[in-house]
Amino acid sequence: MTDNTENEKVVVAHREIAAPADRIFALIADPAQQPRWDGNDNLAEAPAGQRVRGAGEVFTMRITQGGTRENRVVEFEEGRRIAWLPSEPGQQPPGHLWRWELEPLGEALTRVTHTYDWTGLTDEKRLVRARGTTAEKLMVSLERLAAVAES
Predict the structure, then answer these.
(1) What is the arithmetic mean of pLDDT over 135-150?
(2) Whole-angstrom Cα distance, residue 29 to residue 32?
(3) Residue 43's CB: how many other CB atoms inside 10 A?
(4) What phi and psi, each to the nearest 5 degrees, are found at residue 50?
(5) Pairing mode, if any, of strands 109-117 and 68-77?
(6) Which of 10, 19, 137, 138 keeps 20 to 30 A from 144, CA to CA?
(7) pTM of the predicted protein model
(8) Could you tell me which CATH number the domain at 2-150 has?
(9) Residue 68 Cα distances to 42, 61, 85, 126, angstroms
């Protein structure tokens, strides 16, 4: 299921995944695992050993277009919620946020909500790509995440 807010700057997709929340969260909170299920085909690789454990942490990711992104974790609840603000190394985040929320529905079933929020985006160069990040694109990440978590 996908939703877009009225102003289209908060894009949301939901999916139930037949796996425990802790297994799914481990795939999201470990940046080295993210390229396995990234539906935007934007993430190339991340150094191992960056498993996120709390808000305030920063993890790095090499992107497919070249370059590196620093991701500042701004929301964190183990097994339930994680959100980060990406930026170029050493720069302030331009104002877009990626969030994952997990709601256990049973021991082996989890509702996963993926949100892209660009209400605070100030970098004009990024607006075209932000507008192109649709709920359908978020759903591709959810589908790929499900395939990995359910295997």
Answers:
(1) 97
(2) 9
(3) 19
(4) -110, 20
(5) unpaired
(6) 10
(7) 0.92
(8) 3.30.530.20
(9) 11, 6, 14, 16
